[in-house]
Design a protein that fits this description.
Layout lengths: L1 H38 L8 H18 L8 H20 L4 H21 L5 H8 L3 H23 L14 H19 L3 H12 L4 H8 L3 H23 L13 H15 L3 H5 L15
Helix pairs in contact: 1-2, 1-3, 2-3, 4-6, 5-6, 6-10, 7-10, 7-11, 8-10, 9-10, 10-11
Length: about 290
């Protein structure tokens, strides 16, 4: 009897290995697609080969651990594993170099001082003049900063508009917290000023070209890039205002115009909806719900 059970287990293992190999071969293009998607949002010096390697290893691990009895398609399961591996690889590469971080801090200080003095956000040209650098250098720093913030948001929400399956079943409390986070992200986007909301929805959700968004707003592409960076920073603060207030940055001038505008935004995020409406963006399992279009 024991010999028969061992033989059955051996046959099952062989079949499982063969099925795993078939899944890997069939879904290799998925890794390439996800790597291209990431490379489109990070600086050019990020190494494609290392991302591909991390993605392929994650695909192999996903194929070996996939349980089709859960009723989920392998592609959805693999996307979670591969994307997670790519995010880990990016963080490991630490592509936001020290020089970029130093310039970003200086740029933020310049912007805060300008807003406090003039009551409005400075243009890219004005920032460049105050920092004594070329305009294109300011734009490059803004791009790197918003990409870094985007990665943090992606990790924070676990994928906002995609129907994905978690690689493990979280507990009820963890699922509820995750659903609340996604709901607050939607609230934070809805509470953005009109222009910033248009940029976020157009660029990140509808994947429209920046030139098209710029034409709609009647501004140059460089201005859209600046608005995009401003929106990402505001979204992070909006989320933290509701979920982790201790992470909010201290305003340079608590009674200043910029601080009052941010406080009004935080209040708007809180007032956007109820717990029920925030949870409506996800299923009971924490899977984001795709909005139906007419």
């Amino acid at each position: 009897m024991m010999v028969q059970e061992q033989a059955t287990q051996a046959v099952k293992s062989v079949r499982t290995a063969a099925e795993a190999e078939e899944l890997i071969v069939k879904h290799l293009p998925l890794v390439g697609h996800l790597v291209r998607e990431v490379l489109a949002r990070v600086p050019v010096h990020v190494r494609r080969e290392e991302l591909m390697s991390a993605g392929n290893l994650a695909l192999v691990a996903a194929a070996k651990s996939f349980d089709d009895s859960r009723g989920a398609p392998f592609a959805a399961f693999a996307v979670v594993r591969v994307r997670g591996a790519l995010m880990d690889e990016l963080r490991g590469q630490d592509w936001a170099s020290r020089s970029v971080r130093v310039k970003a801090r200086k740029m933020n200080a310049v912007q805060d001082e300008f807003v406090s003095k003039h009551g409005r956000t400075p243009t890219t040209a004005e920032i460049a003049e105050l920092m004594e650098v070329e305009t294109r250098e300011v734009t490059a720093v803004q791009d790197d900063v918003q990409r870094s913030a985007l990665l943090s948001l992606q990790g924070f929400t676990g994928g906002v508009l995609e129907e994905v399956v978690p690689e493990r079943q979280p507990g009820p409390e963890e699922t509820l917290l995750g659903r609340e986070r996604i709901g607050y992200l939607h609230s934070a986007i809805d509470a953005l000023p009109d222009r910033l909301r248009t940029v976020v929805r157009g660029y990140f959700f509808e994947e429209r070209p920046m030139a098209e968004i710029a034409e709609e707003l009647g501004v140059h592409e460089s201005r859209v890039s600046q608005l995009r960076a401003e929106a990402i920073a505001l979204l992070r603060d909006g989320l933290n205002s509701q979920l982790d207030p201790e992470r909010l940055p201290e305003p340079a001038r608590p009674d200043g115009c910029a601080a009052r505008r941010k406080a009004a935004y935080y209040a708007s995020v809180a007032a956007q909806g109820t717990m029920r409406s925030r949870l409506s963006h996800t299923s009971s399992l924490g899977v984001p719900v795709i909005a139906k279009t007419a």
